[in-house]
């Protein structure tokens, strides 16, 4: 009988020891999870980290816009090379009344075999402005523009006319500002991005 009693006591003690170990592991796991969550929160709310992420999105958008614009411009110049004029002073988007999304423009100019990005670095749709419905040629030497609304997804309006864009760079940390590439160069762009 005492051997049976000793065996039960050993099992109970073993179970208690296992329970203590399991509780300790659970506490350590919860503590590790809490520490990890605090680290993630700290990184997310560090302004420098968020700014770096926004700058990366801004630069990716600028790079994609420049590449798409140059491809579109090469195709457009092949159709009317004598009419190109680089923007200076102000750029009036009202001169480009035809606005397309990427798919709509690619459908208009299948002869160019363009691969245009549909969204900017923040996931907002890019706008493609063209002087004519064919997406290629335009009056007064103006042909095309690509516009990103920036982080906030809202297109800016400019004074004195909503579509008259002053050709200028803006502070790199103004992530809600529009990026606009037109006729071979940026007309609105963040510091740190080549025009």
Give an overview of the whole structure.
With 195 residues, this protein is an alpha+beta fold. It has three helices and eight strands. Helices cover 43% and strands 16% of the residues. The chain starts with a helix and ends in a 5-residue tail after the last strand. 25% of the residues are buried. The mean pLDDT is 82.
List the helices and strands and how they pair.
Blueprint: H1 2-45, H2 47-79, E1 90-92, E2 98-100, H3 102-108, E3 127-130, E4 144-148, E5 164-166, E6 168-170, E7 179-182, E8 185-190
Parallel strand pairs: 6-8
Antiparallel strand pairs: 1-5, 2-3, 3-4, 4-7, 7-8
The biggest beta sheet reads: 6 strands, mixed
Helix content: 40-55%
How widely separated are the two ends? 93 Å
The count of strands amounts to 8
* Strand fraction: 15-25%
- Low-pLDDT parts are none
Gyration radius (Cα, Å) is 29 Å
Number of H- or I-type helical stretches: 3
Morphology call: elongated
For the biggest β-sheet, the strand order reads 2-3-4-7-8-6
Structural class: alpha+beta
- Topology pattern, helix = H, strand = E: HHEEHEEEEEE
Round the mean pLDDT to the nearest integer and report it: 82
